[in-house]
Description:
The protein is α/β, with parallel strands linked by helices. The chain is built from 8 helices and 7 strands; from the N terminus they run αβαβαβαβαβββααα.
Amino acid sequence: xxxxxxxxxxxxxxxxxxxxxxxxxxxxxxxxxxxxxxxxxxxxxxxxxxxxxxxxxxxxxxxxxxxxxxxxxxxxxxxxxxxxxxxxxxxxxxxxxxxxxxxxxxxxxxxxxxxxxxxxxxxxxxxxxxxxxxxxxxxxxxxxxxxxxxxxxxxxxxxxxxxxxxxxxxxx
Length: 172
């Protein structure tokens, strides 16, 4: 994860005069060995009043559903399950183009559950700015993300796909 990139992008958002009327907060969920360094970096950037550290949480589905946007600013990523979970919770995503992130953004035709951006502070900030300035677009992406997740990743459907795979393997 590249938390500094996210914090730098958030700093650009905070400095953007076109966003002054928006009360934007960055919520960082979880604990890890880098937390103190991340907190210090937030303090260096003078963002302490706008960044919330929740620590470890047990109610992640509720937390994801409460967000306006979910962000992963990774340099490396497998297949980010948290991005799928966010979309299932009805939260659009902004992901950096790392590993399997591109496959994690719900898409069908021109509709999407979020955006994939290059791994730069400016690209990340631009995508977040768009989500802030255009709430109707954010809502459209959130609705599509949830519908897509429910249609393609519900428990019964996933189990049936595994059964189909096992049957196909057994026939061969």
